[in-house]
C-alpha cells in the first residue's frame, strides 16, 4: 500500500489567497456592479521589456533552423548568461562571484524550496515573522517542523518578529540557529537592510557555522545608493550565504520564468563525520540530477536584461512601479494611515487604524472602497494589525484606488 509524506498533512491549507478570493467573490456576488480594484497580489502588471522580447523572438527563430537549433542546454545555465550576471550583478558591485558559482533556474520560489534538498534534517531554522510563506511551507514539507499552533506558527521553527517597534529589522537571535532566511527588500513589509545590519548577520553566521539564505528577488527596486543589493557586498558573506535572485520582478518574467541562485565555492557545511563539505558540489549534483535547465529562448531573453537597451527599459519599469508605490504612500498617509516600505520596494506595509485586525481592515477597504489588498496576518502572526498594498498595477487603477481611499475611507 502506497503511503504519503505525512508532513503535508501538517500544512495549514493554503489559507491566505483562497480566503481573499472567497471574500472578494462573495462581495462581488452581492454587489455585481462594484468596480473592484485588486492591489493584493505580487504579480507584475506591465509587459516584457522590448529588448527581452526581441531577443526571445530571435531565439525562437534560431530553434527553427537545423544549424542554430538547440536541444538540452547545460543544467546550470548557458555560460554567456552566467558570465553577464557575474560581471554586472556581482563583480561590478565589488562582489567576488564567478560565473561558475551562478546556477540559472526557472524561479526563486522553486530554488528557495529545493535548496533544502542539500541540507540535513536536524538543522535549527529561523524565519522572520511576517515572512514569504514559501520558506515556512517547504520546511514543513521536508519534515523540519512539528505541527502548527493557533497562531499558525510551526513547532521547531525559530520566528524572528519584524515590526514597527524594531524598525522592521530582523534582530540577531540570542540562540544558535543553523539556517536563516532573510529577504531584503522585504516581501511583505517593503523594509530594506543596511550594510551594517547584514554585516551583523554575516558575523553571527560565521561565528555559529550557520548558512544565510538571502532572497534578493526585489533588489532592482533599491534606489538608495547606500543600501547593498547583494549579501556578497558584505565581507565574509561568501563563507556563509547563498543568494537567490529572480528576473520576475525586475524584467517582468513572472510568466516567462527565469531566476538564479549563487552558491559560492567557498561555502561549506558539516557532514555527520565532522568533515566540511562544499555546498556548491551538492547543489551542482542536485541540479544536474533533478533539473534540465531553463529553455534557450528564455535564457536569451534574460541575457537581454544586461544589454544597454534592456538596462534602460528595466530602469523605466522599476521607476514606474516605484512611482506607484510613492503615490500609495502619499495618498494613504494623507488618509491618516501609517505606512512603511514602498521606497526601495514595490510593497507598502500599512498599519491598520484604530486597532482593526488585518482581516477587519481588509473587509472595510473592500466594502467602502472596493479595493483589495493582502491582510498582514496572512504572512505570519506578527503581521497581524498590518496590511500589504502592492505597487504592481496600472497607473490608472492605482490612482482610482487611491482616490477612493482618500475620499471614502475615514480613519
Ligand atoms: C520574496 C520572494 N522570493 C521569491 C519569489 C518568487 O520568485 P520567482 O517568480 O522567481 O519564483 C517571490 C514572488 O513573489 C517573492 O516575493
> Strand-and-helix sequence, N→C?
HEHHEHEHEEHEEEEEHHHEEHEEEH
Percent strand equals 5-15%
Order of neighbouring strands in the sheet with most strands? 2-8-7-6-5-3-4
CATH class of the largest domain: Alpha Beta
Instruction: Please give the largest β-sheet.
Output: 7 strands, mixed
List segments where confidence is low: pLDDT < 50 over at least 5 consecutive residues. none
CATH fold descriptor of the largest domain? Aspartate Aminotransferase, domain 2
The end-to-end distance, rounded to whole angstroms, is 58 Å
The tally of structural domains comes to: 2
If you had to describe this structure to a student in words, what would you say it looks like?
By secondary structure, the chain is of the alpha/beta class. The protein folds into 2 domains: 7-47 and 309-408, Aspartate Aminotransferase, domain 1 (Alpha-Beta Complex), CATH 3.90.1150; 52-307, Aspartate Aminotransferase, domain 2 (3-Layer(aba) Sandwich). It has helices at 16-30, 50-63, 79-90, 108-114, 133-141, 195-208, 279-290, 296-303, 308-334, 358-369, 395-408, and strands at residues 37-38, 102-105, 125-129, 157-161, 179-183, 211-215, 241-246, 259-262, 268-270, 276-278, 338-341, 347-351, 371-372, 374-375, 386-390. The strands form 4 sheets. It has a 7-stranded mixed β-sheet, sandwiched between helices. Strands 11-12-15-14 form a 4-stranded antiparallel β-sheet. The chain has a two-stranded parallel ribbon with strand order 1-13. Helix 2 (50-63) packs antiparallel against helix 8 (296-303), helix 3 (79-90) runs parallel beside helix 8 and helix 4 runs parallel beside helix 5. 46% of the residues are buried. The structure holds pyridoxal-5'-phosphate (PLP). Pyridoxal-5'-phosphate binds at residues 42, 107-109, 132, 183, 187, 215, 217, 246, 248, 254, 259. Residues 42, 107-109, 132, 183, 187, 215, 217, 246, 248, 254, 259 line the site of pyridoxal-5'-phosphate (PLP).
Amino acid at each position: 500500500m502506497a503511503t504519503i509524506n505525512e508532513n503535508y498533512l501538517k500544512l495549514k491549507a493554503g489559507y491566505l489567497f483562497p480566503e481573499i478570493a472567497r471574500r472578494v467573490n462573495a462581495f462581488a456576488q452581492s454587489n455585481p456592479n462594484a468596480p473592484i480594484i485588486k492591489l493584493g497580489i505580487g504579480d507584475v502588471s506591465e509587459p516584457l521589456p522590448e529588448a527581452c522580447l526581441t531577443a526571445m523572438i530571435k531565439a525562437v527563430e534560431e530553434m527553427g533552423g537545423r544549424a542554430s537549433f538547440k536541444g538540452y542546454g547545460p543544467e546550470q545555465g548557458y555560460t554567456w548568461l552566467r558570465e553577464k550576471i557575474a560581471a554586472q550583478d556581482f563583480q561590478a558591485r565589488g562582489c567576488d562571484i564567478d560565473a561558475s558559482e551562478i546556477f540559472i533556474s526557472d524561479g526563486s520560489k522553486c530554488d528557495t524550496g529545493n535548496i533544502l534538498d542539500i541540507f540535513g534534517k536536524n538543522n535549527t531554522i529561523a524565519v522572520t515573522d511576517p515572512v514569504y510563506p514559501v520558506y515556512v511551507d517547504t520546511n514543513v514539507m521536508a519534515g523540519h517542523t512539528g505541527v502548527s499552533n493557533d497562531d499558525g506558527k510551526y513547532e521547531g521553527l525559530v520566528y524572528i518578529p519584524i515590526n514597527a517597534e524594531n524598525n522592521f529589522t530582523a534582530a540577531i537571535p540570542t540562540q544558535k540557529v543553523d539556517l536563516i532566511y532573510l529577504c531584503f527588500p522585504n516581501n511583505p513589509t517593503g523594509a530594506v537592510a543596511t550594510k551594517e545590519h547584514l554585516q551583523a548577520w554575516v558575523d553571527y553566521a560565521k561565528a555559529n557555522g550557520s548558512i544565510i539564505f538571502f532572497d534578493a528577488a526585489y533588489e532592482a527596486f533599491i534606489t538608495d545608493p547606500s543600501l547593498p543589493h547583494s549579501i556578497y557586498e558584505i565581507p565574509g558573506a561568501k563563507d556563509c550565504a547563498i543568494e537567490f535572485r529572480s528576473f520576475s520582478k525586475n524584467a517582468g518574467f513572472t510568466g516567462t520564468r527565469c531566476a538564479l541562485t549563487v552558491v559560492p565555492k567557498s561555502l561549506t557545511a558539516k557532514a555527520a563525520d565532522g568533515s566540511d563539505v562544499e555546498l556548491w558540489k551538492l547543489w551542482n549534483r542536485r541540479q544536474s540530477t533533478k533539473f534540465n535547465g531553463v529553455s534557450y529562448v528564455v535564457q536569451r531573453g534574460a541575457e537581454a536584461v544586461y544589454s544597454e537597451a534592456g538596462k534602460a527599459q528595466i530602469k523605466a519599469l522599476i521607476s514606474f512601479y516605484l512611482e506607484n508605490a510613492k503615490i500609495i504612500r502619499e495618498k494613504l498617509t494623507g488618509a491618516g494611515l501609517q505606512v512603511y516600505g514602498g521606497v526601495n520596494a514595490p510593497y507598502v506595509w500599512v498599519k491598520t487604524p484604530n486597532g482593526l485586525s488585518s482581516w477587519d481592515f481588509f473587509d472595510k477597504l473592500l466594502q467602502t472602497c472596493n479595493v483589495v489588498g493582502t491582510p498582514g496576518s496572512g504572512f505570519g502572526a506578527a503581521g497581524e494589525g498590518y496590511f500589504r498594498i502592492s505597487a504592481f498595477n496600472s497607473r490608472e487603477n492605482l490612482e482610482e484606488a487611491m482616490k477612493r481611499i482618500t475620499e471614502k475611507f475615514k480613519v
